[in-house]
Amino acid sequence: MERKERIKTEIAREAARLLFEEEVRSYRDARRQAIRHFGPAVSSTRGAHLPEYAEIHTEFEHLLRFYGGETLARRVREWRLLALKYLELLEPFQPLLVGSVQRGEVRELSDINLQLFCDKPEEVGYFFEREGITFGEEGDAEQVRFYLEDEGVEIECAVYPPNDRRQRPFCQITGKSLERADAKKVRAMLGEVV
Questions:
Q1: Which of residues 137 and 72 earns the better pLDDT score?
Q2: Which distant-in-sequence residues (6+ apart) come within 8 Å of 61 by Cβ?
Q3: Does domain 70-189 have CATH number 3.30.460.10?
């Protein structure tokens, strides 16, 4: 393995460690901090040594499988149950679970990511208001996200046009097609009667 590839692999492993030990929240921040660990020579030429998120994710999966154990299994189950609660509540918006909870890679710093589908994002805000749910909102004309909190877990609800539900978007983290789960699939993941 040539030096550049070896450094790239070491950066991916360090970024994965930072994510696993929950020192950082995002892959971007983990990669940035990992580069700094290798000193100014690598930092100044980081383009040549920059691992893709998929490479970091592969290393992160190894750590989870090796060290996650019962803590990971318990957390995945608890957070999928919480996600199911919101998938059922938000049924009018045909919600789908994506991200770390769907993949079974839940850390304390993770959040629950839901995709909602409707023509007018403000309908989601009105829904939360009618249900008495406290929420935050951010975004622009292209993308609106609502943020909730339940049991100390942040729930991010990204709103998309209804036609986007049929598309298979690309996942920046895994480098593959984005895996999504509706309430029925999450129940199956939990081993409950569907």
A1: 137
A2: 105
A3: yes
